[in-house]
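tool=predict chain=A
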Amino acid sequence: MPRLIYLVAGARPNFIKIAPLINEFQKEKIKFKLIHTSQHYDYNMSKIFFDDLGIPEPDVHLNVDSASHAVQTAKIMIEFENILIKEKPSLVVVVEDVNSILACALVAKKLFIILAYIEVGLRSFNMRMREEINRLLTDQISDFLFTTEKSARRDRY
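tool=predict ok
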């Protein structure tokens, strides 16, 4: 059975970060599915980036809309778990620091699926930011950690 990678995106910053990955995966003929959590779902926050960056239509939409951080994270986890159980991929790749990323990272890890996190190590050191909490937790549970700039290296802090 060929290996399958899930690329997870749910919000504007994620779409920008996954576009180059998708381009490379397509060039190298790497089998992947794009999972859109729908954390950002309107045209100006989502579809416009797909159009502008040439990102293909997602293979799966979780259709999770705006809600409190707890409700949104829980809905994403429930929907993503259902998908992972049906078609257990070899690897889940998450990018950035939004609720979607933490939710999908937790589910993948609890189902013993290898997890890669892109944009690891960027820190605000402000624990009142939800994104900082998402970053810290996703860093801790990921199997592969990829930085996007020198300031994110762990030996710097």
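The chain has one domain: 5-156. The mean pLDDT is 88.
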